[in-house]
Structure of HTH tetR-type domain-containing protein:
Amino acid sequence: MINIDTKISKKLIIEAAWGILENDGLDSLSMRNIANELGIKAATLYWYFPNKLALMTALSDAVTATVISKFTYSNDWQIDLLNNGLTFSRELREKPYSADLIVSMPPNSEKYLMLMDRLLQIIDHLALSDLEKFYSISIFQDQILSFERDFLLQQNTVRSREHSISNIPDIPVLSRIFNQGLFRHFGQESMLAWNLKMIIAGIDQATKK
């Protein structure tokens, strides 16, 4: 627990919130639990954040801003989209449940819109309609967010799934895959990279129709 004499600030509150998310999960993120972690009364937090949504927005915005700051660009849109997509994923992985926070934000969240715009800029020169560009990047972002959200669930269920699969008849292909231990590739960056490459290949194909 942070010393009660420590001067409270937005930064300390956000750090305490990340600690709760990492150690106890999203369901444990509450103003009361954050206050307990800081050794203060819950009412004190409302001087800094008027409600839990404001705090969650600050957490989401912090991750999104970091992602944007780490984007890199070259002359190859496919490489840029893949690399920046993986950067997005890595930052989400660094902050447990950040994908859930981003998904829970209103669709007009400023930082999230900035992130989408940066990705749209990568494909803006392609021979696609604006609607097709929007669809493409929406699917791209959704894949990354879903992948990271699923990762937390998969960590706790891989072994039980492998055991249950071995007892199901008439699934020869899946049985072969599971017997090779390939189920443990869930959540690995190589798997996400493959998924993103498939989306990128689809975008490229659409430009040639």
Observations:
- Residues 130-165 form the longest helix (36 residues).
- The CA atoms of residues 1 and 37 lie 5 Å apart.
- The chain is about 70% helix and 0% strand.
- The two ends are 59 Å apart (CA to CA).
